[in-house]
Design a protein that fits this description.
This protein is an alpha/beta fold. The chain has 4 domains: about 150 residues, 2-Layer Sandwich (Chitobiase, domain 2), CATH 3.30.379.10; about 375 residues, Alpha-Beta Barrel (TIM Barrel); about 70 residues, Immunoglobulin-like (Sandwich), CATH 2.60.40; about 150 residues, Galactose-binding domain-like (Jelly Rolls, Sandwich), CATH 2.60.120. The protein is built from 19 helices and 37 strands. Helix 2 packs parallel to helix 3 and helix 4 packs parallel to helix 6. The chain is globular. The chain binds acetamide (ACM).
């Protein structure tokens, strides 16, 4: 409150519009916005006017009517011509701001959206829709009067969806497009091809999808439990579906940029057409692995004919200015080992395999440029020399962007770690599987899109920013949406709103409205980072100590211990609670009066206080730390799968601070997951401890290098599929110790994995 008053005073003193207090809930925050007096009453009888014959404006008006219908259940009628005298209507008018810019004037007597281009009209309509949708209420609404003048900071406001590792339905991609468009994101980079699959129908090469649109999942998920027959997982996008999606996106000012990977990440096309590669029988089954595969295209003329044919069909389908050709992570072992490739390197006079990759990409660029399009690739296309007209997508930090810009090339910032949306969003147990290292909503919001490492001139080459969702660990369509949203809303503000207008605190106040908007659009958005998480620990005199926290620490955590639903009037959480065993604790986050996320519920039992999920344990290493999904359902039948926190280079967990001065029983729930990673020779560094019994053992050590105090045979629990439980007694030792938990096993694959451990008193 104090902050708002001070800012308002400052605004008056310098006679600038009242921007600072920002009463309007618009995301991304507009370039200029001023609240005016009164409201515009939007009802089912409100009409949207467009000029006679303005087909584009009419299209936008119909979209606005449709969006209002989805969120509020009312559908204004679209009519041609001026509003009648005294009619309080919405008008879409040509003029004013160019490009994606627009002006929006909301007054009690009518609403006017003004823009020169269709894109601007669309974004004006989106802003009006946002002002009309602040919560999940239905029916007529008072839209706050306001004057908005708006235009984007960056031209490329992107999201990359990996549809190769896991397939998403066309319906889900439409939903993602809806969520993007509602936040003025304008580029969907569609990763259609990788080692695991080729998803886009190519008429001239039908085996690409017939063979490589499908794979057998790793481990237990790869066999039907009833028949034992291989399971086929996958899906393809037909050219008709692609055309429909491209049009659906374009209507929402979103360009779909297709990516066809080369020369690496090419196992899928090589399985379909081995003559394009360097080995006669590329391993079809390995398509269920993750990581970096060695399989590259060869550099025969016939391979370029193939790539040109594919790109021709792709360019016929996608009118995008840019065509993405991948170029990342093409390990050169096969090229190094091939006499034919080595001869080609000599013949061309290029320096080495990187020089050959540069020649490869330049040859493809000529074809793409020949069709009037531009090539974009991951930052590895810089290695060995950048193709003359190429644009660089910087993913290994921003070094690629710096290098590209200093050579006068355009660049898009989509760096690890912050803009990699396969990372989890908080430490909550409710997060979907993915990479363990967190990239939170706040991290994304605070991403610096104008880094000091670039000079002012170099910054002019930054086309924009993009978040990437790799889907190795994103098996379902719902999870793809949860990983994308609401982080894409934060990215949208980074991409659209000028630096000086961005403000995390202001953004957070708009989050309840944002979550309501996403819900209205049917977008599944991750609420876990807003929600309380409880840590239960043994307390004094048989009580349970419960501490609450939330990933983003936005607003106030409120709780009840009498079974009632927490409300904005419930006690605010301050310090750890001391609860009688058996108490039901319910908690929810509130921002003022508004709840943010769901209510979470725990029963404070002694067992719960002495139990930790693998995701609540410390990992011994951080080489490839994942929240890795089990290959089989928890109960061996249909249903949920366990999610293990595991460093797949060093499966080892630490229980901090176990008091071993009295006998304890350790009970562990364990699973077995396929070890399906292509990491070359690094695999040989993984320690596999030899078992003493046929199914292996769980080992307990004092610290990771200390005495092995228990060896608990896994027996049946080690056989899977699904989870099994084992227990054993820990010997008494003086004092409090960190316990290091590891497994022995016959081989690396499958790898035993810890799901949950408890330490209870007695034997
Ligand atoms: C990438 O993450 N390999 C672009």
């Amino acid at each position: 409150m104090i902050k708002v008053l001070l800012l308002a005073t400052a605004a008056m003193a310098f006679a600038v519009p009242v921007l600072a207090a920002e009463p309007l809930s618009l995301t991304p925050a507009p370039a200029k916005a001023e609240r005016a007096d009164g409201v515009f009453r939007l009802t089912a009888a409100t009409r949207i006017h467009v000029a006679k014959g303005d087909v584009e404006a009419r299209g936008v008006a119909l979209q606005l009517a449709d969006l209002l219908h989805r969120a509020r259940g009312l559908r204004p009628m679209v009519v041609e011509g001026e509003p009648a005298a005294g009619e309080a209507a919405i008008s879409l008018v040509r003029g004013g701001p160019d490009g994606e810019g627009y002006a929006l004037d909301v007054a009690p007597g009518g609403v006017k959206i003004t823009a020169l281009k269709r894109a601007g009209l669309f974004y004006g309509a989106v802003s009006l829709w946002q002002l009309a949708v602040q919560d999940d209420s239905k029916g007529p609404v008072d839209v706050p009067a306001a004057k908005v003048e708006d235009a984007p900071r960056f031209a490329w406001r992107g999201f990359m969806l990996d549809s190769a590792r896991h397939y998403q339905s066309v319906e889900t991609i439409r939903t993602i497009i809806d969520g993007m468009a509602a936040h003025k994101l304008n580029t969907l980079h569609w990763h259609l091809v990788d080692d695991q699959a080729w998803r886009i129908e190519i008429k001239k090469y039908p085996k690409l999808t017939q063979v490589s649109g499908w794979r057998q999942p790793a481990g237990a998920a790869g066999r039907d439990p009833k028949t034992g027959k291989p399971v086929r997982y996958g899906g393809i996008y037909t050219q008709d579906q692609v055309r429909d999606l491209v049009a659906y996106a374009a209507a929402r000012n979103i360009t779909i940029v297709p990516e066809i990977e080369m020369p690496g990440h090419a196992l899928a096309p090589l399985v379909a057409y081995p003559k394009l590669g360097l080995t006669p029988n590329p391993p079809a089954l390995a398509r269920h692995d993750w990581g970096i595969f060695p399989y590259l295209y060869n550099v025969e003329d016939g391979t370029f004919d193939f790539l040109n044919d594919v790109l021709d069909e792709v360019m016929d389908l996608f009118p995008s200015e840019y065509i993405h050709v991948g170029g990342d992570e093409a390990v050169k072992d096969q090229w190094k080992a091939s006499p034919v490739i080595q001869a080609k390197i000599k013949e061309l006079g290029v320096k080495d395999e990187h020089g050959l990759q540069s020649w490869f990409i330049q040859r493809v660029e000529k074809h793409i440029n020949g069709r009037g399009r531009r090539l974009i690739g991951w930052d590895e296309i810089l290695e060995g020399g950048l193709a003359p007209n190429a644009t660089v997508m910087s993913w290994r930090g921003i070094d690629g962007a710096i290098a590209a810009a200093s050579q006068g090339h355009d660049t898009v910032l989509s760096p690890e770690p912050t803009l990699y949306f396969d990372r989890r969003q908080s430490a909550s147990l409710d997060e979907p599987p993915g990479r363990i290292i967190i990239s939170s909503l706040k991290d994304v919001y605070q991403f610096d899109a104008a880094p000091d490492a670039l000079t002012a001139d170099q910054r002019k080459h930054i086309l924009g920013v993009q978040a990437n969702l790799w889907t190795e660990h994103v098996r379902t369509d719902e999870r793809a949406q949860l990983m994308a949203f609401p982080r894409l809303v934060a990215l949208a503000e980074t991409a659209w709103t000028k630096e000086e207008r961005r403000d995390w605190d202001g953004f957070t106040t708009r989050l309840p409205a944002e979550m309501a908007r996403l819900k209205a659009l049917g977008v599944a958005a991750d609420t876990a980072p807003f929600e309380p998480q409880a840590t239960l620990r043994p307390g004094q005199g048989g009580a349970i100590a419960a501490s609450l926290s939330s990933g983003l620490a936005i607003g106030q955590l409120r709780y009840t211990t009498d079974g009632a639903e927490p409300t904005a009037a419930s006690p605010a959480y301050g310090e750890a609670l001391s609860l009688k065993a058996g108490t039901v604790l319910k908690a929810r986050s509130f921002l003022g009066e508004q709840p943010l996320g769901r209510t979470r519920v725990w029963t404070a039992t002694e067992l719960a206080a002495n139990t930790r999920e693998s995701r609540q344990l410390e990992l011994c290493g951080a080489a490839i730390p994942l929240m890795f999904e089990d290959d089989a359902p928890k109960n061996g039948r249909d249903g949920d799968r366990a999610v293990f926190a595991i460093d797949v280079m060093n499966p080892c967990w630490i229980w901090k601070g176990a008091d071993l001065s009295k006998p304890l029983t350790l009970t562990a729930r364990v699973g077995q997951a396929p070890w399906n990673f292509q990491i070359g020779a690094a695999k040989d560094q993984i320690v596999v401890r030899k078992p003493a019994t046929p199914d292996g053992e769980l080992e307990v050590r004092l610290g990771c290098k200390g005495e092995r105090i228990a060896v608990i045979p896994l027996g049946k629990a080690g056989r899977g599929p699904g989870l099994g439980t084992v227990s054993g007694v820990l010997p008494v030792r003086e004092g409090v110790h960190d316990l290091c938990l590891t497994f022995t096993a016959k081989s690396l694959d499958p790898m035993p994995a810890l799901d949950r451990v408890s330490l209870t008193a007695g034997q």
